[in-house]
Design a protein that fits this description.
seven-stranded antiparallel sheet, alpha+beta, 4 helices, globular, single chain, about 160 residues, two-stranded antiparallel sheet, disordered N terminus
Length: about 160
């Protein structure tokens, strides 16, 4: 499911927490280098991904709604509830990929874990889906990493600083 496999950087940013509204949540994490590990199972087929990401200050705060739309156009969140150390929420996708998942996000200022379980539609066929992801702070980014990520951010967000 492309929707959750490509979520590494966006989900990494979902780690510090205060609820903005009953429909959304806003989260903040310390900028730096994070090790990202994700295990996804779609229709019983496992897929693992692991990488290192440099998270710059401009990307260290995100709402769950922005996270969902970054995952895939047509995705949103609903029933967001603040819990001790994170959020419970429903991920709903009605774009290229359709389906729903119940998700839990737990975090500290330098780590987070996400669990999601639900169903996705492969064409007209609904299949089971689950995902577990973990991001752990590894230290500061190098100046070159920060410069590269800042340049990428400015290209993707013209007018941003």
């Amino acid at each position: 499911m492309r929707l959750l496999i490509t979520a590494g950087v966006a989900l990494l940013a979902v780690c510090g927490a205060t609820a903005d509204t009953l429909k959304d949540g806003s989260v903040q994490v310390a900028p730096g280098k994070y090790k990202w590990m994700q295990e996804t199972s779609l229709a019983g087929v496992p897929l693992k991904e692991e990488n290192l990401e440099c998270l710059i200050p401009q990307k260290s705060k995100i709402t769950l709604s922005k996270l969902a739309s970054d995952l895939e156009k047509g995705c949103s969140v609903d029933n967001v509830r603040a819990i001790k150390g994170g959020f419970l929420f429903k991920l709903i996708c009605n774009g290229k990929t359709t389906g729903t998942a119940d998700a839990t996000l737990l975090h500290t200022d330098k780590s987070m874990t996400i669990h999601a379980k639900g169903s996705a539609n492969l064409g007209p066929i609904p299949v089971g889906f689950s995902m577990k992801a973990q991001a752990t702070y590894q230290g500061a980014c190098t100046p070159d990493e920060v410069a590269k990520e800042t340049e990428r951010f400015l290209k993707e967000n013209p007018g941003a600083q």
